[in-house]
DNA sequence: GGAGTCTGTTAATGATGACTAACATCCGAG
DNA sequence: CTCGGATGTTAGTCATCATTAACAGACTCC
């Protein structure tokens, strides 16, 4: 059928394709609610073919979450360090916009990242948690410049709360156009963080 | 062993006991990550004993989510109608405090309520969604009094976002003392909702 | 003191599902 | 060509698990 001979990168794309399809499925039905067969079917191969690309279902999830956490952390590190160390205000805005863009662009990833950490094998879980912690600390650092009197624990809790707010996207999808949603979330988050 | 003869309400408590234990387990490992055996073990009976109280695993989850949704809706309806129709401000505060109290008191329930709706059989799911919608509308009604110019879709999205913020509790547990957390969440949510 | 209901228990039963084995195909390099 | 690796396929295999069956103690009500 679609054995187009000119298939570019017939290999390298499979992994990405699988990860993408699996993310959608995990987001919709949860890790344990999705079978290897399901994931295979979603990319047009059937079942055990996945073992040519991943060592197992948990490894697949681990790689997915590691990738998400790494992207967020990298983005956080990049945006929080906007040269100008004076304007913590600008850094916070950059973090906000970056996180919102990610959440709106990849709602499935956000959902999986939020829900499935427990299903990742111990070792990878530690690595993921480390990255998450680094990302949070990026926010806490910026916030502590804006609110020097506020204790770190409170800043951390506030950061988690804002993540909850921003990550509500997958739940209220479709209500608003993406730009409107982005603006709303940014305004609400900014206001929430001003009260520290 | 503990066959204390004077066991009060030996029956009626089992259902509640099971629901409670199951909620903790579901919150920790997800619906599909918990077996009937696990739930039985958590309340000291083993396995199929649960079928004396629930018709099945999904029915158990359905009842759990129905109960949570009903409690929230009831609480919402009660608090939003604080006699004084003038002070929408007060009604909003009441809704906020009520939701925060619930989230802080029952983090496991909040988590399950947020994550497991997809695993509920169709019919019950509809009922649960209806209750959730009613609860959201309670908020939207109050908010629309405070922000008459704001379109309902935006108010709904904002409500979901605030729920995300308030429900971040299970994720940042332990960072702050409950009262401090409650105060923080209320301040942040109030500020976020002022920006509409 | 026995019939019936409630609540449990320990064995099936039957699916589902992750993972492995054994066996093709394709394709690039020598 | 042909060897080898990459990628798939289809049949197991082995666990796990929800659910049911068959049976038993306890308590109530007569």
TrEMBL record, chains A, B:
Keywords: DNA-binding, Transcription, Transcription regulation. SUPFAM superfamilies: Homeodomain-like, Tetracyclin repressor-like, C-terminal domain. Pfam families: TetR_C_24, TetR_N. Residues 12-72 form the HTH tetR-type domain. PROSITE patterns: HTH_TETR_1 (PS01081), HTH_TETR_2 (PS50977). It comes from the Bacteria. InterPro entries: DNA-bd_HTH_TetR-type_CS (IPR023772), Homeodomain-like_sf (IPR009057), HTH-type_TetR-like_transc_reg (IPR050109), HTH_TetR (IPR001647), KstR2_TetR_C (IPR041490), Tet_transcr_reg_TetR-rel_C_sf (IPR036271). Residues 35-54 bind DNA. One of its GO terms (biological process) is negative regulation of DNA-templated transcription. GO terms for molecular function: DNA-binding transcription factor activity; transcription cis-regulatory region binding. This is TetR/AcrR family transcriptional regulator. It comes from Microbispora hainanensis. The lineage of its organism: Bacteria, Bacillati, Actinomycetota, Actinomycetes, Streptosporangiales.
């Amino acid at each position: 059928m679609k054995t187009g001979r000119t298939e570019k990168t017939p290999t390298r794309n499979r992994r990405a394709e699988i990860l993408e399809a699996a993310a959608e499925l995990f987001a919709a039905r949860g890790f344990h609610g999705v079978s290897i067969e399901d994931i295979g079917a979603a990319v047009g191969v059937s079942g055990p073919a996945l073992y040519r690309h991943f060592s197992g279902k948990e490894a697949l999830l681990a790689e997915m979450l590691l990738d998400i956490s790494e992207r967020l952390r990298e983005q956080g590190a990049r945006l929080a360090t906007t040269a100008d160390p004076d304007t913590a205000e600008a850094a916070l805005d950059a973090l906000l916009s970056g996180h919102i863009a990610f959440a709106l662009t990849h709602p499935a990833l956000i959902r999986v990242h939020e829900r499935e950490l427990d299903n990742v094998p111990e070792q990878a879980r530690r690595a993921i948690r480390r990255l998450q912690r680094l990302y949070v600390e990026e926010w806490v650092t910026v916030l502590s410049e804006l609110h020097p009197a506020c204790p770190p624990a409170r800043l951390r809790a506030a950061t988690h709360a804002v993540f909850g707010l921003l990550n509500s996207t997958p739940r209220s999808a479709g209500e608003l156009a993406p730009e409107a949603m982005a603006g709303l979330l940014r305004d609400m988050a900014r206001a929430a963080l001003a009260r520290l």
